[in-house]
Amino acid sequence: MSERETPMDDAAAHFSTEALGEAAGPGRYVDIDGITPAEFGPGLTFRPVLGQGVLTNFVNYEPGAKAPRHVHEEEQMVIVLDGELHFDLDGDVRTMRRGDVAVIPAWVPHAAWTTDRSCLQIDVFCPPRKTLLALAEEQQATGQQGRD
Q1: Is 20 a member of any domain?
Q2: Can you give the CATH number for the domain in which 31 is found?
Q3: What's the mean pLDDT in 45-54?
Q4: pLDDT tens, residue by residue, 64-108
Q5: What is the C-alpha separation between 20 and 32, in angstroms, rounded?
Q6: b or e along 110-122 (b: 16 or more beta carbons within 10 Å of the residue's beta carbon)?
Q7: Does residue 90 form part of some domain?
Q8: Residue 141 pLDDT
Q9: Which domain holds residue 46?
Q10: What is the mean pLDDT of the chain?
Q11: Who wins on pLDDT, 39 or 62?
Q12: How many domains does the chain have?
């Protein structure tokens, strides 16, 4: 931002109504409760929502559930909505609670687990996580991924 620009100038540009390209497709609304959770481990369920170039995954950990240490090529953000989650980000272990975010670049090892509390989190993957694409596409085909 230059000396002459103000935050309002940025806001005006941010909320511009001038289309500089073609719409990539119709928008849609998704009822998360209408998506059948897929169990990826004992007490660990995923409900992925697929966009054009991003995948958002609603993840529920029951007490004692875990996502083992792993890596992947997609960038990921973990956002805790409720409960408590222990997170290992390449050896840096922290307890995450409501409002906490972990940013995971491609190929960085990470793991997560709960102890005596459950946790609801959102994962955001860009590009969409390849291992969740088939599940999200199947749910989309059966009408679980929303309506126009």
Answers
A1: no
A2: 2.60.120.10
A3: 92
A4: 999 999 999 999 999 999 999 999 999 999 999 999 999 999 999
A5: 31
A6: bebbbeeebbebb
A7: yes
A8: 75
A9: 26-141
A10: 89
A11: 62
A12: 1
Residue 33 CA to residue 31 CA, distance in Å, equals 5
Distance CA 59, CA 71 (A): 17
Give the length of the chain: 148
The residue type of 115 is T
Instruction: Decide if pLDDT at 139 tops 80.
Output: no
The amino acid at residue 41 is G
Q: Is residue 111 part of a domain?
A: yes
- What pTM was computed for the model? 0.84
Task: Give the residue from 114, 48, 128 showing the smallest Cα distance to 84.
Answer: 114
